[in-house]
Amino acid sequence: MLRHLIRACAVATLAVAVAAPAVAQSWPDKTVRLVVPYPPGGNVDGAARIIAAKLQDAFGKPFVVENKPGAGGMIAGETVARAAPDGYTLFVAANGPLLFSPIIFGRTPYVWSKDFETISSISFTPMVLQVYPSVPAKTVADFIALAKTSDPKLIMASPGAGTTNHLASELLQKLAGAKWTTVHYKGNAPATTDVLAGRVQFNFDQVSVALPYVKDGKTRALAVTSATRVPQLPDVPTFQEAGFADFEATTFTGLFAPAKTPAAVVNALADALAKILAEPEVVERFATMGSEARAMKPEAFHAYVAKLDARWTQVIKDANIKAE
Amino acid sequence: MVANVRDVLAGLFFVAVGVAVFLLSRGYGIGTPAHLGPGVFPMLLSGLLVALGIAIALVAVRDKVAAAVGLSWRPLLLVTAAVGVFGFGLDTLGLFASVALMVLVSRAARSGQSVMESLVMALVLGAAASFLFYYLLGLPVPLWPAFAA
Amino acid sequence: MSFLDNLALGFSVALSLQNLAYCLLGTVLGTAIGVLPGLGPVATISMLMPLTFGLDPTTALILLAGIYYGAQYGGSTTAILVNLPGETSSVVTAIDGYQMARQGRAREALVVAALGSFFAGTVGTLAIAGFAPALSELALGFGAPEYFSLMVLGLIAAVVLAHGSVLKAVAMVVLGLVLGLVGTDVNSGVLRFTFGISDLFDGLDFVAVAMGLFGIAEVISNLERKDEARAAVTLGGKGSFLLSREDFRAAWPAVVRGTGLGAILGILPGGGAILGSFASYMLEKRIARDPSRFGKGAIEGVAGPESANNAGAQTSFIPMLTLGLPSNAVMAMMIGALIIHNIQPGPQVMNANPSLFWGLIASMWIGNLLLVILNLPLVGVWVQMLRIPYRVLYPAILVLCAIGVYSVSNSTALVYVMAAFGVLGYVLAKLQCEPAPLLLGFVLGPLMEENLRRALTISGGDASVFFTQPVSLALLLLAAGLLVVMAMPRASRLRDAAFEEET
Known about the structure:
heterotrimer, A: alpha/beta, D-Maltodextrin-Binding Protein, domain 2, 2 domains, six-stranded mixed sheet, five-stranded mixed sheet, 12 helices, 11 strands, globular, B: mainly alpha, 66% helix, flat, transmembrane (chain C), Tripartite tricarboxylate transporter permease (chain C)
C-alpha cells in the first residue's frame, strides 16, 4: 500500500516528459538501485534523490535510492563494484568514496578506473573560504600574509580528515607556502558553529551553507574554490583570480556502473541525464543545494575524474593523510 | 576458598580487557599537549580498567556472600546462531528463507517445543516479515534466493 | 510581528485540512514503524522520505516532524514492553519502564510516558516559539572546553544509573568508553581497534550495540528460566484507564523537572540532547526519598526521562531553525528535505518563509496532541500483546531485532555486531554488571575525548581553558561535587545499598 502511495505521489507530481530513449535490449524491466555511499540527508543523497525521480519518469521503472554508508563510502563502492554489470545496480559517487577513501584508509577494494564505467557527471559543488569577521584579512593575499606571520597560527575548522574541505586547505597551504593549524570535527555543522562563534578563524564551507552567514555579515567570504565565480556570490573572486592559477577544489557527484555494464545501458543513462540535468527545474534544485547541475558524456567525465585523481593523490601524499 | 566467584571473574574480565586495550593501542601515538595523539585516551582507559578489575576482584576475594556463575549454553549458542544464520543468509537466500531459518534455529533454543508449531511459526513469520518489510517498507533486500530468481 | 501573531499564523497554516491530515498520517506511521525494534526515527524517516516529494514544503516538513515524534514515542513503547531501547534516550526509559512492565504495570508506564511527553512537548514548543533566536546564542556559546566538562559531569553521573556495586558500574562506564574508541579517530583520522574490518571504520553502531546488550541478552536470559508461565512480563490487573492518584502525585514533579532539564540540554547541538533523559533520571534518583526503588520499577524513572527526552526533541530544532545547523541525524534529513523542496535552509527561513516556520512549530504541538489522543487508547492494545506466550513471542522479537538492525545502514555487518553484543550482554548480566552505564560511556566517551583534544589544540596545549571559561568551570565544580557526594557513603543515601554490599 505504502509503496503504491509513494509511487503514485512521485509519478503524479513529477510528471515531466522525458522520452525514454530506445535501448536495444529490454533494460530496464525491473527496479534499478542507486547506491549512495552516505546516510540520507546531505548533498550526494539529495542529488541521487532528485535524479532518481527523474530517471523513473524517463524509463518508466522504479529507480530506488539505497543508502549504504560506511568506511568513507567504500562499503557502497565495494557493493557496486561486485554487483552484476546488468545496469540494475548503479553508484552515485563523489570525490571521497571514489578517489580519496581508498588512499586514506590504505585499502583498495576497487580501483575506480578499472571497476566502474563512468556514465555521467551530475553536479559540481564549489566551496568558499570564509573567515570570522574580526580576522583582519579582506583578500586572499592579506589572508596568506596573515597566516605566514600569525602567532599562534590561524586555525582552520575541517569537517573531517580527508574531506574535500580538508584537502582544499592542504592544497592552498602547499601552493601558498603557508602553514596553519587544522582542527577536525565530526561533520560540517560543528565546524561551522565554531567559525560562527569565533573560536576558530576560518573554514572552507559549501556555498549553500555559508551564503546566509556571509549575507548577514557573520562571516566574510574571501574566495571561492571553483574555476569561475558562483552566481550566488558574484562579488567574491575565485582563487584563480587571486593568483593561484592551479587552485580548483569542487566536489563532484556522478553516476557510475559496475565495469562491463553494456554500452547501450551506459549511453541510455548518459543521454537521459543530459536531458534531465538541463531542465530548468532541476537546475534550480541543484542551485538551492549550492551546486551546479552539469552532465558530461562518459568519455569526457572519465577524463575529468582521471585528472582529479592525479592531482588529489599527490595532495594527500604530500600532506601525509593516512588512517594507519 | 573464594565464595564470590562471580565478582572475581568480573574483575579478571576487566583486567583482561584492559591489558588487551593496552597492547593494541601501543602503536597509536601519544602526540604533544597541543596535539594529543590517538593513543593517549586508550592508554588511560586501559590503566583504569586494570585498576578497577583488580579492585573488584580483591573486594570479592574477601566477600563472605557466595555467588557462582553458570552459563546456559543451549539458549546462548542457539539464539546467537539464529541471529548469525539470518545475517549469513539474507543476501543469498533472501528475506523469507532467512527469517524462516532464524525462527527454526531460535525455537530450538528451548527444549520440548512442538516441531509443528515451529514450522508454522517459521512460515507465518517469514511471510509476515516479507509483507511488512519488503512490500510495505521497501527494504532493499532480495526476497527469494538468488538461484531461484 | 508579535509572539501571538506568529502563533496565530502558525495555527492557521497547521490547521488547514491537508496539513492536519498529514500531521496525523505522520504520527500514525511514525508510531507504527517506530514501535518495531531498531527502527528509530532515522530509519523511519529515511524510508518514508519519498512520501514527501509530491507535497508542498510546509506539508512535507509537518509530515516528517510527525514521523519523528511518532517514531520516538513508538521507540519508548518497545523499550518498556520488551526491553529494547532503539535509541540513546530510551536506554534510560528501559531501566525502570521494563521493570514496571514485569510487575504488571506496563499500562501505567505507557500512560505516564504519553502524558509526560505531551506536557514536555507543549513546553518545548512554547520555548521554540518564544525564545528560539535568544536560545540559539546558547548553542553558539558552547565550545570544546564546555562540551568536555559537560561530558565529564555526564560520565560521573552515569554511575548513578546502576543500582549494584559502584566499582562495577565505574568499570562498565570505562568499558563503554573503550568500545566508543572503535573506528576512525575524529581528531587525527587514524583508525583504532578496527582490525582491518571496513565495517568498523565508522565505529560500532549504537543501535546494534544497544539491541544486543539489552534485547538479545534478555531473550537468552529469559530462555534459561524453565517456567513458561511468566518468563518475561506479567499483565496489569488494575483496570483504571489513566493513572492512580499516588502514581500521578509521584510522576508530575518528575515530569516538570525532566522537561526543564531536557529543554535546556536539547538546545546544545554537540550531543547535549543525549544527556537530557539520563540527567533527569539521575536527578530523580538523587532527590527521591527512597532511591533504592530505582531500577526496580519507579514511576519517576519513566516520567522524568521520557519528558526530558521529548522536551529535548523539540528544542533540538532550535539550532536548525535559527542557525541552519543540524544537531543530529534527524535534523540533517529535515534539512535534506528542505533542499529537495527547493528551500534554502538557514537562519533566513524564519523571515523568508514565516508560514513554513510558524506552521511547523504549531504543527509540532498538534502532533504531540494527536500522539496522546492516539496512544492512550492504544496502550490497552500494546499491553494485550504481552498476553502472547513467550515461546511464540521471542522468535518474533529476534526477527524484528535482526531486520531492524539491518535497516540502520542496510548492512548485515550490524547483524553480527548485535549477535556479538548479545553474548557479551548475557555474560555481563551473569557477572551482575549492568549494561546501562556501559551504553552511556559508549555514547559520551567519544564526545569527551574529541572535545578534550580539540580544546587543547585550539588553546595551543594550555589546559587552563577548562578552568578559565566560566561555564566549563561551573560544570567541572558540579562534577567534583557529585564525586564527593558519591564517595561519602554515610552522607549519601544514593549509594547506600552498594556500599553495604561491599563492606
